[in-house]
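Quick one - inputs below.
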Amino acid sequence: MTPLKAHRDTMSDMAASIPGVCADDPLFRAPWQARIFALIVASVKTGHIPRGDFQSRLALRITQMEQAAPVGDTEDAYFDCWLAATEATLLDIGLIADGEIAAQIEAIRETIAHIRATQTPT
Amino acid sequence: MPHDHHDHDPLEEGAALRVRALEELMIAKGLVDPAALDAIVEYYERETGPRNGAAVVARAWTDPDYRAWLLRDGSAAIADMGFSGFQGEHIRVLENTGTVHNVVTCTLCSCYPWPVLGLPPTWYKSAAYRARVVREPRAVLAEFGLVLPADTDVRVWDSTAEIRYLVLPIRPEGTDVDALAAMVTRNGMIGTAAL
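Output:
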């Protein structure tokens, strides 16, 4: 083992000894976390969502989550807040109307049900 | 039982379904371009990360003029290395010395210098870290294995949507830039580790 490798292994071991700490955390734990992240980055970049509008709602959601209950899984809870803040921002600035998300979810469910129905052997 | 394999379909999980619905709505309204979303995910998963920051730090250690520029105007000096990210927030670089140790947090949410460090690790987003590092930085750093001398001035920096911080760690022994860059760790650039 080279001194450099030993050095890096030691650093990793130290980080790994702390609860909830992992030296090589994956950036996203689920594809949806990457998608909602990208959705906001793209919307801020194009100017459709003012960054401050989203940021303030994200901070509010995180504060509310922490006050409501101890956090079990930080990573998932964090992206849950990200999703809630995204929906709130889109509704508040009028890019998405009340009920549109629920309608779209229903449309996706119907599509999935249809695909399943056609693929399930009878 | 023909339906068993559906039980774990990710499309049936609440969050995945909601995100897909949001994405489809925004694409249908012409608010986002699906190819742009793919490019962003690709960029953050593959192109950014602590090695970008490590390259910046190693150059600063070996080039006094660059170091001075980096400390004076972090955003411009970092952009000179090709790392500018997507959001354009200002990055300020904080130099650790024999008497001053800097550590970074974001008490409100999880603001982080993404272009140079990638996305924040789980612990950075945890309530425990964010709340405690401001109140008792030495105790938190000790839990990371970093025990600082009593006379070291510990400075905690709270990130915002507008200003992100990157710690310039104390240079370890060594002269080769690539070897130095390989010794720079993510935690070293947040301030929760020494090198």
